[in-house]
Amino acid sequence: PPVMLVELLFQAACVSLFLSSGQGRVYPARKKPASFAVERRRVGPHVCFPGSGSGCCPGWMLSPGTGKCTLPLCSFGCGGGSCIAPNLCMCPDGEQGITCPEPLGTCGEYGCDLSCNHGGCQEVARVCPVGFSMAETANGVRCTDINECQSAACEGTCVNTEGGFACECGAGRELSADRRSCRDMDECQATPCQHRCENSVGSYRCSCRPGYHLHGNRHSCV
């Protein structure tokens, strides 16, 4: 009997140890911080932590419409194409690449400048206002007025203006609708004569009705 009692006590101790050890292995599940989950739902895909102020991964930026990181960036610009993924452009000819080739002559006779913004960089035409030419100087680009009268087709006199030119006609003539050629001005429309007026090229002549003669001033009738 003492031996059996010892065995029973030993078994009871083992069961107690097993139960206590099993209970010690039960842990409550850990919850993710609420702030992380909320931030993830608010920003959307392509989010990197830690990141810049927007939290977007490199190559992505916040879309103004949704506030999510769904707007791709193409660092080299896409020209006439569109940015469909980070540094991947869809070009007008259907080809894809890190940038799209610019059509020949896009920048005009003055070449291109590199214009950069949050969406990347692209080449833009360097231009001066109409009627001005561009010149490179030590202080940068200078726009100089072009003297259009050197090539303008004015029938009368050409007057150069800042950024353009104007044609003028002599006495007795006026500009036509094309603003370049001249036509005879009908001075008789201003009724300079007391009785009758006869228009001529660049001038006019007054006359009187029967029974009157022209005054010395060449306009009145006596």
UniProtKB/TrEMBL annotation:
Matching CDD domains: EGF_CA
Keywords: Disulfide bond, EGF-like domain, Glycoprotein, Repeat, Secreted, Signal
GO cellular component: cytoplasm; extracellular region
Annotated ranges, domain EGF-like: 184-218
InterPro entries associated with the record: EGF, EGF-like_Ca-bd_dom, EGF-type_Asp/Asn_hydroxyl_site, EGF_Ca-bd_CS, Growth_fac_rcpt_cys_sf, NOTCH1_EGF-like, vWF_C/EGF_Fibrillin
One of the Pfam families matching this protein, by short name: EGF_CA
GO MF annotation: an example: calcium ion binding
GO biological process, one term: cellular response to virus
Subcellular location: Secreted
Signal peptide feature range: 1-24
Superkingdom classification of source: Eukaryota
Name of the molecule in the record: VWCE protein
UniProt source species: Catharus fuscescens
This protein's encoding gene: Vwce_1
